């Protein structure tokens, strides 16, 4: 585990700004599943010493890893955890239980090893990286107009893409951003419709007055940004934040680099949903770790057709739920790699005639 911290907030872009058009072009030409690797994993699974399907979703997880790593058997010695932190203009509107300064303070806590994710990263021997996204320049308050210019949004996405490299076996994605459950709720309302109250919840723990304020802020955000309803990337630009753009970019980069992705809670899944809305196949290399206690997450999981692995009532963010999948995935892989086959163990297969039975 390392507490690597990256202060180079953005890639310099003197020759050619990254643009959302480029992201659209990449999305139109995404690599598909490696069905050969997936089938090879399935075929081994079917020989192993257990009734077919008896390891349930553990079997599915090994096939998913093989399919999206493009490798049978898959590997899991090099998982990475990435947290993107972003500052939100709407955080000034009384929508969080915590002050906006907590975003930067938590980044420092991640660097110092004080947070929940540090313990999980260390325990599970995962590389942890924290990327601060321009915290000195919060997004604009989206009740007054777009949260980001196209340039800021695209640059953050390009930065997220650069946080990933080929050779990683897994990416666990998380975020830190005071106010981002309001941003995520607005983004979900723009992408999938429904009243703001469908998508707003307590976040870090606001009371019922706070929830009313959040609903009003989301409604004002939708009213101030009519173009957000016309296109998923425009919704991200108008209502999202830099950490959400970076998460979106990282998900795309992982697809290109054949790195399977584990998504964490509500804000992280909302960023991923932008890609789903652009192309439902764009999240096929992603799983969702857990169902967050944030009520909008359940609705969002239905909208993007994902079934979470855990239901632990967590609502922390910072990739804490995603990190818990590492030991589960390793457990699945240990069985897949090391179990004997029926033949090797000398155990009779399903429906095999008892030895010495009378015909
Ligand atoms: O992961 C979740 O589902 C989740 C639910 C509620 C809150 N959070 C975290 O809390 C922060 C956002 O909450 P809020 O109340 O400031 O909008 C942000 O740092 C998230 O990582 C995360
Ligand atoms: C303390 C704290 C830790 C967090 N980690 C992720 N989001 C968070 C929000 C708060 C408020």
Written description of the protein model:
It comes from Niveispirillum lacus. Pfam families: DBI_PRT. Its EC number is 2.4.2.21. This protein has 359 residues and is of the alpha/beta class. The protein folds into 2 domains: 62 residues, Nicotinate-nucleotide-dimethylbenzimidazole phosphoribosyltransferase (CobT), small domain (5,6-Dimethylbenzimidazole Phosphoribosyltransferase, Chain: A, domain 1, Orthogonal Bundle), CATH 1.10.1610; 254 residues, Nicotinate-nucleotide-dimethylbenzimidazole phosphoribosyltransferase (CobT), large domain (Rossmann fold), CATH 3.40.50. Helix content is 46%, strand content 9%. The protein has 14 helices and 6 strands. A 6-stranded parallel sheet has the order 1-3-2-4-5-6, with helices on both faces. Helix 11 links the parallel strand 5 and strand 6. Helix 7 packs parallel to helix 11 and helix 10 packs across helix 11. The longest helix is centred in the last third of the chain and has 19 residues. It is elongated, with a radius of gyration of 22 Å. The protein starts with a strand and ends in a 14-residue tail after the last helix. The N terminus is likely disordered. The structure holds nicotinate mononucleotide (NCN) and 5,6-dimethylbenzimidazole.
